[in-house]
Every structure is written in C-alpha cells, then in structure tokens.
Design goal:
- The protein folds into two domains: 55 residues; 205 residues, Distorted Sandwich (Glucose Permease (Domain IIA)).
- The strands form three sheets. Strands 2, 3, 5, 6, 7, 8, 10, 11 and 13 form a nine-stranded antiparallel sheet that branches. A two-stranded parallel ribbon has the order 1-12.
- It contains five helices and 13 strands.
- It is of the alpha+beta class.
- Strand 6 and strand 7 form a beta hairpin.
- Helix 1 runs antiparallel to helix 3.
- It starts with a helix and ends in a 7-residue tail after the last strand.
- The longest helix has 25 residues.
- The protein is globular and about 65 Å long.
C-alpha cells in the first residue's frame, strides 16, 4: 500500500471518528470534552491539506497534454474546466486536477436552468444528457467498471445544492472515491495514462473490466450517480487507476481542444475504421 493510499484511508477514518464522537457526546452524560471531540477533525483537515499540497508539487512536471478523442458525440457545454483554472474542481484529490464536467444541450435552452427555490429537484428525464452515449476516447483496456449505484434527483436548486454541499458531499467523501464518482469507468490508455468517466447511468455499462475497446465505441450512458448536481459526464485523465492515489494528467480533445467553462462544443461521430 502506498503512503498516499494509507493517508486517504486515515483521512476518512478521522472524519468517521469525529462523527462518532459527536454522536456519543449528544447521548452520553457527561458529554465527551470538546477538546477530544475535535481532535480527529483537526487531524483529517491536516491530512487533507498535506495530500493536496503533495498534488500541487507535480503540476510543474505534468508534461504536455495527452491528445485523445472526445468522450461524447453531439452538442455539449463545458463546466468546471481546466481551461479556466487548475485545479478545475478546486482540489487535486481523486486525480481531479485537470478534470472537466460537460452537460448535453442538443439545442440552446434545452436544459432546465438552476432555480433558487422551486422546483427543489427535477427527475433525470428532464435533462437531455440523461442516457446520452459515452464513448471511448482511444483504443484502450477497461480497468474498472461499476454501475450499481442509483441515479438520484437533480440538485439544481438553492435548497438541493445546500443539502449537497453541507451534508451529502461530506458523507460521500467519508465513504470513499467510489461514492463520489458514482457509476464509473476507468480505461488504460497505455504509457501510464488512464481515462476516468464518472456519474454514469445505472445499468448502462456495455463493457467490463478486462475488455478491450476501440476509440469511438459506446461504453455506457450519461447519468446522475454519485456526487452530481444533474446528469452530466465528469471526465479526467490520471496517472493511476486508483482515484485515491492518482494525480491528474492534462488532456486535449482532438479537433476540439479543451473547452472553457460555458463554451459550447460539438463532437462529431467517430469515423469507422477497419
């Protein structure tokens, strides 16, 4: 087990210990002293900062972007893009340094907007991205394939987003990377580079670990599983198949580049070969 993997396990154990101590403090008489209760929380914060700092040291040696095909076809919009900031999601954790989120919008205005109050949540069928095909970005081998987690309702309102940020995200973080990425795929592209697809639709995977895939091959469907606000695809390249250990790798999509946040792009259907 690597030091980084051990640190992530310890990080989660510290947060779970903190939650347990808070619960005991509420039920016990006399309560657990505050100084004791917050020790594991402080340790978790320190470990998280150290892991992120270690991730930052690799940014200057990340190397040139790895060129691949796009992971989708059709008209999409980019969000949380490394074209705007690095790390794109505000953390180097889980190999997300150069990750990007994309949402399908076949036509302008075809996606439900964010609402501050109502409706609190929407069904996934209201979003054009739900069920959209996700394709292989290169010839590769499937390393991980998981699609047993449910697709939850959207978090595209003020109350739902607050619930996600203040409660759900923390619980998922304690549960581990698989709870955050939801249904997912990891492909081995060769040369120490791995492609990760997160938040896939439950039951939609067409491949399993060990399969060989060709660029442009449909792998699964876009979903809303894991730590997700609405049906979308989270895509990233990384240097290890384990999210706890991985560091982000920069990418560029052939014919598209790296779309910035809010930028609309269209990915053509791949040309069949052979």
């Amino acid at each position: 087990m690597s030091v980084r993997k051990a640190a992530m396990i310890l990080y989660r154990c510290c947060w779970m210990s903190f939650v347990a101590l808070v619960a005991v403090s509420l039920l016990a008489e006399p309560p657990v002293p505050y100084g004791v209760t917050f020790v594991p929380a402080a340790a978790a914060v320190a470990i998280g900062l150290l892991v992120n700092r270690r991730g930052r040291t690799g940014l200057g040696t990340a190397g040139p972007p790895v060129e691949t095909g796009p992971p989708v076809t059709g008209r999409w919009i980019a969000l949380n893009s490394p074209a705007d900031k690095v790390p794109s999601h505000g953390t180097h954790g889980y190999g997300q340094t150069y990750a990007i989120d994309i949402v399908a919008e076949p036509e302008e205005g075809g996606r439900p907007p964010f609402r501050w109050l109502w409706p609190v949540a929407r069904p996934n069928r209201d979003f054009p991205g739900f069920g959209a095909p996700v394709v292989a970005v290169a010839d590769a081998t499937v390393v991980h394939a998981s699609d047993g987690r449910r697709d939850h309702l959207s978090r595209t309102s003020g109350p739902a987003l607050a619930y996600l940020m203040l409660a759900e995200a923390s619980v998922r973080d304690m549960a581990g990377a698989r709870s955050i990425v939801g249904n997912h795929l990891v492909l081995d592209l060769g040369d120490g580079t791995y492609a990760a697809y997160a938040h896939l639709r439950r039951g939609s995977l067409r491949v399993r670990a060990g399969d060989t895939v060709r660029e442009g091959q449909v792998l699964a469907r876009c979903g809303n599983s894991g730590n997700s606000t609405e049906p979308h695809l989270h895509f990233q390249l990384m240097d290890h198949p384990d999210f706890d250990v991985a560091r982000g790798v920069p990418f560029t999509w052939r014919g598209i580049g790296v779309p910035a946040g809010g930028e609309v792009f269209t990915a053509d259907e791949p040309v069949a070969t052979g």
